[in-house]
Each structure stands twice: as C-alpha cells, then as structure tokens.
Protein: IprA winged helix-turn-helix domain-containing protein
Amino acid sequence: MLQTPDSSIKALFQCIANEAQPILIAEGEEIMDFSNGSEPLFYFIETGQIRYEFVNNQYWLGSLRAPALVGIVGYYYPERAGRFFAEIDCSGYCISAKRAIELINLNNLWPDTVNYLTYLIKKLLEHEMTMSSGSSYSAICYLLRQLENEPESVRGKISVLQYLYKRTGYSKSIISLVISELKKGRYIETKKSHLVKINHLPEKF
Structure:
C-alpha cells in the first residue's frame, strides 16, 4: 500500500496555515472548486475523508483520507470531470489557490508539492491498472481490501454491495453473486450487509 507523504503535506500546511480560514465540511457536502466570487480555492483536509465522483455517471474514482490537499491541479486545469465530496464529516482549512501558489513559490515548496502530486498519480495508476485488468473478480478483491482498510466511520455506513457498485459500475447482480459465494466459503464476514472481516480471498472465482 502506498504511503502518504505526510512530511510534504505538513510542510505545505505550515506554509499556508497563517493565512488560511478554518472550515467544517459535513458528510455528503461538496467541496467547492471556487469561492462565491469565482476564485479558485485550495483546501487542506485535516480530519475526515473525501471522495472523487465523476460528474457524468456518479462513478466514484476513489477516496483520500486526511491529511489531504485539494485544489492544486484544478488551479492549472479548471476543466473538471468530477467533484470532491466529504465522505464523512471533515475539518480543515481553505485559502485562495492563487495565494497558496504564491506561498509555495516564496517558501520553495515545489519539491513537496511534486512529491504529493506524484503520490496521487501513483494512487490513480494503481487503481486504473487493477480496474482495467479485464478481470471483474480481481477488481472486486482489490476494492474489498480497500474497504477493509477504511475507517469504521466509513465502513459502517456503506454496504459492501454499494461500495463495490459505486466504484466499479458492474451490475449489482454480478457483485451480489461474488459476495454471496465469498460469504458461503467463509472468505469474508459481513454483518447487516457491512464488511466485518476478510479471512482470505481465493486467487480465482
């Protein structure tokens, strides 16, 4: 599993902390790209977890657990394919993206910025390589392991079926069949449709 570049995130946060405004984002609330005055925004998510959802089909690309940064890419490439939402209640800080970039320049923090963006790219590549492998079962196993590693505040609020469906787009009948067979073989344990534990996932289905 990829390690979050915490030292780079901390350096970037300390750079903007004195000028950023504290924010609270409720579960399910969208993280807006722009202020009311249409100014691009930069966010530091200190607690909670956010997810990225495509606009056209509401497919969930993935989640980012705090600490996380949002807004650098959008500042340079404002055409957006999706939106960020708070998966659980979040807290953090918000600042003008333009001012954040100025502070990054002044404090020579582009190496830390690149380090964080590289982490995001690697995370996306890992996800896409698995999802495009051609095996729906491999993709489901990959996401089941992700779900097992989610904090209880996330895992306890979403069923296994919904978690897999929103992140794959596979038919619910196929996902339900795989879940049912894994439960029968005692490879996974669930309670009230929520994942409790993975005992072992067979290589083939």
Observations:
- The CA atoms of residues 48 and 198 lie 24 Å apart.
- Residues 110-131 form the longest helix (22 residues).
- Strands lie at 21-25, 30-31, 41-47, 49-54, 60-65, 68-70, 82-86, 90-96, 188-191, 194-198.
- Helices lie at 6-16, 72-76, 97-106, 110-131, 136-148, 152-155, 160-168, 172-184.
